[in-house]
């Protein structure tokens, strides 16, 4: 952790402590790129649907609870979901994007593969965690994984679960979590037992990936800044073209200054283009406005 609060872009590791970007676009875009359509309600919740209406994603910042994302697939557009995945408001956006990218890829190969994909062993979703050194444990039909630093984990319940209880959230086939052990500091993601294993494997693989992620400083949850590894990101070195553009902008600014100080000429000699408009400054980022 730097001795002072970084100002601007920062890199954060591990991913489980990066928090959400609070922006839905990165996770919705993989589906939009494959023909899914989006619409929003009057509260700014966004719903993304597949062309055949069998797969649907909800981005719910104004939803009834702490669940920010819901993704469901149903063979009967008017029936109960065949499977459901949820991510709460603290879940790192990269995990949701990993899931939706895998979902979009599977759907593009054949919509039926998302609804009735061949059952693969749960071990496929464990592999990346084991390779990253996560500790494995078990109790009866439950398999547990914990990250080496103890800040993230996975619980998988084997056997046959009650479908309705899973959809209500009373039972979790798969539970991913990260962060400190308190309500305000921990995030949760859940998958019912019938979610295709390849979608879960893509998500666990991203969680186990040690690569840092980018955040704007104000997006990093204050409650985890003493634990996460946060480093300021240096701005890119300007190219020769950047330098020329900056010099041209300074020259225009200097010309504007001279024009503003020049004595007024008789009205009959002033042309409409004699005084250049002042260029307004660009805000650095929209996220700064939220601070």
How would you characterize the overall build of this protein?
It contains 8 helices and 13 strands. It has 291 residues and is of the alpha+beta class. A hairpin with a 6-residue loop joins strand 10 (174-179) and strand 11 (186-191). It is globular and about 70 Å long.
Radius of gyration, in Å, reads 25 Å
Helical content (DSSP H or I, runs of 4+): 25-40%
**Global geometry:** globular
Strand elements, count: 13
Number of distinct helices: 8
Question: N-to-C terminal Cα separation, in Å?
Answer: 21 Å
The strand order across the widest sheet is: 2-3-4-5-6-11-10-9-8-7
Reported for the largest beta sheet, the result is: 10 strands, antiparallel
Strand content: 15-25%
Low-confidence runs: 1-6, 264-291
State mean pLDDT (0 to 100 scale). Answer: 83
- Element string (H = helix, E = strand): EHEEEEEHHHEEEHEEHEEHH
Structural class designation = alpha+beta
Quick summary of this structure?
The protein has 291 residues and is α+β, with helices and mostly antiparallel strands. It has 8 helices and 13 strands. 29% of the residues lie in helices and 23% in strands.
Topology:
Blueprint: E1 9-13, H1 25-32, E2 37-40, E3 46-49, E4 55-59, E5 67-73, E6 83-88, H2 93-109, H3 111-115, H4 123-131, E7 135-139, E8 142-146, E9 152-157, H5 163-168, E10 174-179, E11 186-191, H6 197-208, E12 213-216, E13 229-232, H7 240-261, H8 286-290
Antiparallel strand pairs: 1-12, 1-13, 2-3, 3-4, 4-5, 5-6, 6-11, 7-8, 8-9, 9-10, 10-11
């Amino acid at each position: 952790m730097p001795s002072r609060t970084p100002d601007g872009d920062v890199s954060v590791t591990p991913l489980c402590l990066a928090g959400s970007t609070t922006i839905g676009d990165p996770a919705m875009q993989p589906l939009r790129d494959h023909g899914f359509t989006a619409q929003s309600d009057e509260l700014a919740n966004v719903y993304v649907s597949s062309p055949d209406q069998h797969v649907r994603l909800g981005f719910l910042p104004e939803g009834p609870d702490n669940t920010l994302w819901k993704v469901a697939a149903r063979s009967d557009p008017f029936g109960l979901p065949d499977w459901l995945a949820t991510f709460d408001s603290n879940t790192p956006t990269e995990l949701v994007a990993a899931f939706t990218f895998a979902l979009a890829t599977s759907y593009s190969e054949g919509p039926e593969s998302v609804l009735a994909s061949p059952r693969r062993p749960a071990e496929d979703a464990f592999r990346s965690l084991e390779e990253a050194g996560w500790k494995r444990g078990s109790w009866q039909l439950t398999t547990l994984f914990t990250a080496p630093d103890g800040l993230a984990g996975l619980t998988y319940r084997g056997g046959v679960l009650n479908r309705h209880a899973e959809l209500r959230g009373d039972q979790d086939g798969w539970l991913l979590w990260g962060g400190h052990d308190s309500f305000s500091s921990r995030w949760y993601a859940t998958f019912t037992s019938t979610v295709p294993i390849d979608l879960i494997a893509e998500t666990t693989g991203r969680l186990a990936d040690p690569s840092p992620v980018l955040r704007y400083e104000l997006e990093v949850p204050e409650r985890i800044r003493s634990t996460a590894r946060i480093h300021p990101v240096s701005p890119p070195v300007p190219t020769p073209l950047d330098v020329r553009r900056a010099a041209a902008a300074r020259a225009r600014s200097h010309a504007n200054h001279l024009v503003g100080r020049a004595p007024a000429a008789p009205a009959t000699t002033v042309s409409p283009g004699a005084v250049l408009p002042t260029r307004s400054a660009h805000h650095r980022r929209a996220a700064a406005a939220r601070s």
